[in-house]
Amino acid sequence: MGAKEFQNSDAASFVQFIERMRRSYGKKRIADIVNEVAGDSGYEGYIRELGDEERLDNLAEFKRIANEFEREFGEELSLEEFLQQIALQSGEDGNGAKDTVKLMTIHSSKGLEFPVVFLLGLTEGVFPSAKTIGDRKQPGLEEERRLCYVAITRAERYLFLMESEGTSQNGMKKLVSRFLDEIGRENYVSVGRISEELRQESRGYAARLDREAGAVPYRTKQVGDLVQHHVFGTGRIEAVDEKRGSYCIRFDKLRQPRNISAGYFAI
Prior knowledge:
It contains nine helices and six strands, in the order ααααααβαβααββββ.
C-alpha cells in the first residue's frame, strides 16, 4: 500500500472489506451479501453522490432479484448458485447472438440498448398506469413518465410507439396515452390517424384520472428559480418548455443541464 496512487485514499479499508467478505460470505444470506457489498463497498453512496438515477434503479432491481431468488430457492441458496442462475437467465451462457425478438418489461431493459425497439401499450390507464397514479398520486405519474423515457432511450436506430384501438378487458374504450402528446407530434411519424376528437377525449380522461387520484396541481416556476431534485440535488431553471411541460435545469452536481417534467416539482 506504499504506492503513490494509493496515498491519501481509503484503499486499505476497501481491501480489508474484500478480505472480510471472502471469509464470511458463506455464512450469509444472498440478500444480506448484496446489501452489504452495495453499502460497505461505498458503491451505493458513490452513485447517489453522482446523481446517476439509472444506476440506482439497476441496483434496486438487483436487490429485488436477490430477494426473489431467496424466496424461491430458500435461504440456503449459495452465492455460487445464485450467480449461476443469474448468468443462465441473462443468457450469458448462450452460444452468441440469435435472430430472435426479446420480450421484456421496461424495468428489465435498463442498461441495455437494441437496434430496434417496439414500445407497446401506449394507452391511457395502461401506460401511464391508472393503478400507479391512484396509489402514489403525482410521484407515481412521474415514475411512469421516467419509465417511458427509459424505454424510449433503449432504441439505437428505430423506435416504434404502439397504441391500439377498440376496448380494454374491462369494456372501457381505449384512449391515447398522454405520453404521445408530451413527446410532441413533430418528433414522430404517425402511421394511421388519431382523430382530434379521440385526443380530446383522452386528455379529458387523463385529467379526470388525476383529479380522482388527488394529484396536486403544481405552481409554474420561472427561469432563474432554484429547485431541488431527490437525486440530482439543487439546480437552477435555465429555460421553460411550456408545450412539453418541462424545465431545463442546470444542477450543481452535473456538467450538462437536464430536462425535468414540471409535474415533478408538485407542491
